Automatic annotation (TrEMBL):
It comes from the Bacteria. It is found in: Cell outer membrane. PANTHER family: OUTER MEMBRANE PROTEIN TOLC. Belongs to the outer membrane factor (OMF) (TC 1.B.17) family. The lineage of its organism: Bacteria, Pseudomonadati, Bacteroidota, Flavobacteriia, Flavobacteriales. Keywords: Cell outer membrane, Membrane, Transmembrane, Transmembrane beta strand, Transport. This is TolC family protein. It comes from Flavobacterium jejuense. The keyword Membrane applies.
Amino acid sequence: MSKTYTYIFLLFIGFQMQAQEVLTLEVAVKIALENNYEIKIATNNLKIDETNNNLANAGILPTLSANLNNNNSQTNTTQTQSDGSERTLNNAKNFSLNYGIGLDWTIFDGLSMFARKEQLAILEAQGKSELQATILSRISDVYLTYYDLVQQQQVMASIDSAIVISNQRVTTAQNRYSIGKAAKLEVLNAQVDLNTDKSLLLSQKELYQNTKTKLNELLARDLQIKFKVVQEITFEESLTYDEMKELANKQNPQLQAQILNKKIVDLNLKQVKGNRYPTVRLTSGYNFTRSEASLGFITQSSGQGFVYGVSASVPIFNGFLQNKREKAAKYEVENASLLLNQQKVALESQIASFYQSYQTNLELIKVEEENVTIAKQNLEITLAKFKIGTITTIEVRTAQQNFIEASVRYATAQYNTKIAEINLKELAGTLSWN
């Protein structure tokens, strides 16, 4: 009966594993692009910039408005005529109505309107750079978290192998103890090592599940969705420093946003200087008027027709505010230049640091791969000697730990290489999300 229950249990576990979806990196990236909240917010911010980039918002187009004024009064009125006589009327009613359409158009303001239009276009371009930066950052997070799960799977596989060996040690120690060829202490040591490995596996599984939750959060989906990831980490070995630096200088989103910010403050200075020039406005419209009075020489009048005119104003003195505003705008231009240079230096420093890590870990992969092979051979020889009783359990445990540590270091070297590769591609703006 126990064998039957065991068989059913194994079938259930197998079914549960098959029920979990295999989440590929490409699918994870696609889900993040569709669901991630920060990407959605950045997309909406870009739409706002696109909406604001128009001629009307820059002040280039005229404004057309409909006007209506209706005034009524009811008063007790006394009028003295030129011959000295008086006219009195209680509750005298007066009425006036004006309505029509008016047009107001600023045709010159020191070219500030054209600077504003160019500024709006740059703000839209800056919004595109910020959206790209947000996408790169969030997709980079997806990449890093995904490959972190792959690495953790490899670590768990190493611990699983250690548990298999520890179980064999316990079985062998118990058999040797039962026939009088080993002390009870050997059995206890083997059992302690087995429990240590099990405890380590539980801790690793907890970290693994928490990382899965983090990935689900990045994908903005149900945190309880179960999935599996691929088993291996793949990486490029042909990245060059000069190529990454050149690409970053051309298309790094943060750098491009800083370049655009410099253009914005340049245009702001141009707008401030434009306040020194005259402002010329055209006005036009078509109005209807009507008025009624209970007392007076004219008791009723009405009219309609076109009205038009031109107005101009020239700033002469405003308490030296113009000079102060231009001075402040020039400081903003200087700060924008400093920030741009700072961004360039920081970007080059980051590329140099990540590229050094990339190269170092590529070499570490080769070393640790060789160490895994050696540690595995050593463990196999040690286990064979242990089974015939020629070495102690301490030597077996040492060989076992050496194999686990070598396997973990190998997985870590692969993951660190991938981290450096992802960060380099993010800085260069070449991290793929299509």
